Amino acid sequence: MSSALFLLAIVLFLSLAFVLALKRVRDGSFYGDTFWLLPLGVYVWGDALILLPFWIIVAVVFLLSGVSGLGLIRLYLIFAAVRSAYEVVYWLLHQATKDQYRAPLFRKFTGLAPRDGAILYQLLHTCVLVLAIWMLLLL
Q1: Is residue 9 within 8 Å of 29, Cβ to Cβ?
Q2: Per-domain residue ranges for the chain?
Q3: How far apart are CA 33 and CA 115, in angstroms?
């Protein structure tokens, strides 16, 4: 029962965050940082338009199916691995362009050039990918 209430609270929280994301994107903040949503793979408000509904559906499916918490952890680790792999590829490609867009976690460090931030961001996600795969293999 307590896990059901927890998942319902998550669905409510994610739904409210999705409404906030819609508002922020409409106001022109597609690339605005979302540090408090980083654990869900939401790095900017634009990401939230896809990923928050994904997590809402995941929570509802787990709530209705009665799958164990271990199943949810496995799904999260797979997501973290795939999301981080995508970020690695994205930021490797970013380094080869002349784009001035800065990686979300490194925007505040104005002393870093965009390409430097891309390298650091790509390395960070390489580490996340390695850890996620490692943890997945340990389960």
Answers
A1: no
A2: 1-67, 68-139
A3: 18
The tens place of each residue's pLDDT in the chain, 139 residues long, gives 677 788 889 899 999 999 999 999 999 888 899 999 999 989 989 889 988 999 998 888 888 887 777 888 888 888 899 888 888 888 888 777 776 777 777 777 777 777 777 777 877 888 788 788 888 877 7
Alpha helix locations (H) across 28-68? 45-65
* Dist. CA 109–CA 54, nearest whole Å: 31
Q: In this structure, what token pair is assigned to residue 123? A: 């390395």
Whole-model pTM: value is 0.74
Residue 19 amino acid letter? V
What phi and psi values does residue 26 have, to the nearest 5 degrees?
A: -60, -30
Residues 125 and 135: their CA atoms lie apart, in Å, by 15
